[in-house]
């Protein structure tokens, strides 16, 4: 279901970026691994938890100046299975809005830091699983990007989300972006 949504939205992001024609605009996708920590003591006392999963996301950004951009995106932050509760799990996703400050190390390599907010959805799945939650929480990220061409970059990123449904989520991703 989530992958179908991404497949439908990806071409729209590219078309809208092209239509705007903004040379300061970029779009990208990322995939990686997430780990969740600090589940509620009631949950941890009842069952073992599969606390890692695959993450993925789409983002769009606009360079305000060369070293500062505003970025927004959707992130699927994984599903965490409750091992002793048949069909029980928690699932997380977010829409992020962050400022991205970057600086070049070489002509092709840059380091960056991001900070902003995540509007999250924390969903309980299955019988006997409770605590759906949604809200806003801070998020920060650190990463590096390598320019493959003048328009394409590949990067790695570590991102932290605090208190999504009471749980802290760490995300380690590989990203590919395209500038217009």
From TrEMBL:
Q: Which SUPFAM superfamilies match?
A: OMPA-like
Sorted alphabetically, the keyword list is: Ion transport, Porin, Signal, Transmembrane, Transport
Tell me where in this chain the Outer membrane protein OmpA-like transmembrane domain is found: 22-166
Entry's InterPro entries? OMP/PagP_B-barrel, OmpA-like_TM_dom
> Which Pfam families is this protein grouped with?
OmpA_membrane
Domain of life of the source: Bacteria
Q: Please verify whether the record's keywords include Glycoprotein.
A: no
Molecular functions per Gene Ontology: porin activity
Which residues does UniProt assign to the signal peptide?
Answer: 1-22
- One GO cellular component from the entry? pore complex
Q: Which family does it belong to?
A: Belongs to the outer membrane OOP (TC 1.B.6) superfamily. OmpA family.
Q: What is this protein called?
A: Outer membrane protein OmpA-like transmembrane domain-containing protein
């Amino acid at each position: 279901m989530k992958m179908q949504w991404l497949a439908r939205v990806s071409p729209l992001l590219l078309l809208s970026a092209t239509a705007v024609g903004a040379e300061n605009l970029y779009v990208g996708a990322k995939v990686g691994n997430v780990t969740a920590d600090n589940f509620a003591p009631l949950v941890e006392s009842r069952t073992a938890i599969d606390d890692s999963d695959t993450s993925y996301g789409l983002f769009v950004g606009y360079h305000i100046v060369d070293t500062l951009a505003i970025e927004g995106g959707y992130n699927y932050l994984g599903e965490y299975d409750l091992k002793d509760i048949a069909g029980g799990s928690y699932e997380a996703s977010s829409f992020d809005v962050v400022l991205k400050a970057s600086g070049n190390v070489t002509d092709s390599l840059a380091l960056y830091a991001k900070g902003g907010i995540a509007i999250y959805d924390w969903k309980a799945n299955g019988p006997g699983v409770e605590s759906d939650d949604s809200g806003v929480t801070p998020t920060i990220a650190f990463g590096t990007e390598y320019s493959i061409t003048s328009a394409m970059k590949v990067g790695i990123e570590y991102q932290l989300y605090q208190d999504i449904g009471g749980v802290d989520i760490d995300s380690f991703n590989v990203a590919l972006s395209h500038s217009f």
